[in-house]
Amino acid sequence: MIKKVLIANRGEIACRVIKTAQRLGIKTVAVYSDADRHALHVSMADEAIHIGPSAASESYLVMDKIMDAIKSSGADAVHPGYGFLSENPEFAKRLNKAGVTFIGPNPHAIVSMGDKITSKKLAQEAGVSCVPGHMDLIEDADEAVKIAKKVGYPVMIKASAGGGGKGMRIAYNDTEAREGFQSSKNEAANSFGDDRIFIEKFVEQPRHIEIQVLGDKHGNVIYLGERECSIQRRNQKVIEEAPSPFLDEKTRAAMGAESVALAKAVQYDSAGTVEFIVDKDKNFYFLEMNTRLQVEHPVTELITGVDLVEQMIRSANGDKLSMTQDDVTLNGWAIESRIYAEDPYRNFLPSIGRLVRYRPPAEGTLSSGAIIRNDTGVYEGGEISMFYDPMIAKLCTWGEDRGVALTAMKDALDVFELDGIGHNIPFLQAVYDHDRFERGDITTAFIAEEYPEGFSGAMVNSGHTRKIAAVCGLMHDISENRSAQISGALPNHERYVPNKWAITIGETDYTAEIKGERGLRTVIVDDINESKAALEMEVLTSWKPGMPMVLAYVDNKPLNFRAKRCAEGYHVWHRGCVFKVCVRTPRGAELAKLMPVKEAPDTSNLLLCPMPGVIVSVLVNKGDEVQDGQALAVVEAMKMENTLRAETKGIIAKINCQAGDNLAVDDVIMEFET
Question: 332-450 adopts what CATH topology?
Answer without folding.
Answer: D-amino Acid Aminotransferase; Chain A, domain 1 (3.30.470)
